[in-house]
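Notebook entry, structure prediction.
Reason for the run: the old model in the group folder had no record of what sequence produced it. Starting over properly, with the input documented here first.
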Amino acid sequence: MDPEQALLEARRLDREGQPGRAALAYKLALRAGSEAAKVDLSALLVRMGRHGEAAALCEEFLEAHPGHPAALQNLAGACLGLGRLAEARDHARALLDADPLNAQGHLALALAGGGDEHLRRARELDPHDPGIRRTLIHSLLPRRAWEELYPLWKEAIEDEMEGPRARFETALLHLTYGHYAEGWEAYESRLLPPNEAFPRVDSPQPVWDGAPFPGRTLLLHYEQGFGDTLMFIRFAARARARGGRVLALVQPEVLPVARTAPGVDALFTLDDPVPPFDLRLPLLSLPRVLGTRLDAIPAEVPYLHAPPGPCPASEAIRDTPRLKVGLVWAGSAAHAQDALRTLAPGDLARFAALPGVDWYSLQVGMDEGLPFATDLGGLLRDFGDTARVLARLDLLVTVDTAAAHLAGAMGLPVWLLLPLVPDWRWLLDGPDSPWYPTFRLFRQLDGHGWEGPLARVEESLKDLMNHRRGTC
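New structure, fully documented this time:
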C-alpha cells in the first residue's frame, strides 16, 4: 500500500465525520510507513476522548521530530484530557515559543490554567474557530456575563447552523434575552423538522393570524409539555375577545384544571370527536399573533382554579398551624434539559430539621421519596388533583416543572429553583417572573450546582417562619 495514498484516504474519512473508520485507516497508513499519520491520528484520538493513546503517539513522534507544532498541540490537548495540566501548560508554552500567533496554543494554555488573557488572545487570532468560541462561552457562563455572551451565541448560530435549526436557536436566543418581538416570530420554526415541537392537528382550516373572527370558531391546540399548556392557556381569553367561539384541545391530564380557564367555550382531548371549527392555532403561537411584549404579558392571576370534587391527596394534608410546604425536585426525564433542572432527593435533606414545617412531596414517577415528607405523588391522578393539593398548601418549592406553572396560574406562592442557564421563559437575571407575580426565583449563580440556591431557600424559610411567629 502506498503510504501517501493511505494517508489521503484516512484524511478523507476524517473530514467526512467517520471517526471509527478514519482511525482504522490512519493505522493502516502507519503500517504502510506514513509518519505523518501519527500526528493526524493523535488529533482524531483527542477528539474521540482517547487521550492516553493520543499522548503516546505524540510523544513517540516528538522524539523523532522535536518541537513539531501540530504534535505539540495534540499532546497539549491529550494532557488536558488526562488532567495532566502542568504538562499541558509546558507543551502549550513550547508551542507558543515557536509560534506566538498560534491560536490553539493560547487556547490550550488557557484551558490548562494559564489565564483568561490567553483565551481572549486565541479568539483574536482565530475569531471563527468554533472550539475557541465554545470555550469562551463556557468561561463566561459561571460569571453570568450575559452581555458578552449574546454576540457569541448569535455568532455560533450564524456560523454553525442553518435552516429551521438555526431559526429555532435564534428564537431561543431572543426569548432568553427578552427580545419578544423577534423571538416569537423565529419561534414558529419549532413547528418545522428537524425541530421537535409540532401541531397536534392536521386539518385544512387556515391558521389564525390574530385578526378579528366574529361568528367563527377558533381551535387552540396543545403542543409540547403540560407546563406549556398551563402557561399559554392564559391567552385564550384575549383570543376570544377578538372573535366568536374558542375551543381548546388539551392533554387529558390537564383537562380538569383547564376547564377553569377563562375564554374557552369548550375543551376536549384527542380521545374526543373534534367539533367543527374555522381557524386553528397552536397554543404557543398565541403570543406572536397577539403581539405580546415583555412589558405586557397577561399575568393576571389566578386564571386557573382547583376543580371541585373529592381528592384523597388533598385530604391527606393535615389541618395544623404549621407551615405546609410542597416539594417537587424532578421534571420529566424526556425533557432535553432535564439533567440541568433535576435535583437528587438527598439534596433536600437539609430541610428536614427546619421546625414548624409540614412537608408534602408532590413528586410523581419516582421510586425514591423523602423520609421527612408525606408522599402525595402516588395519589395524584391528574392536574386536577395537583390543583386541589396546591390549594391547601402555603408554599410550593420546586424545580422547573408543570407543577410550578399550575401553582403560578392559581396565584399561589412558588419558590422556583433554576439552573445557571434556565429555560427561556425565566430570563437570565432577577428574583421575579413577569409571567407569574407570585413566583420567587432562586437561581444558580456560579454553575457550581444546587448548594447555593438551596441554602438561600433554607434561609428564606427560616425568615418566613420567624415572620409568622412574629405576627401570631
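Summary: The chain has four domains: 3-145, 151-191, 213-296, 312-471.
The old model has been moved to the deprecated folder.
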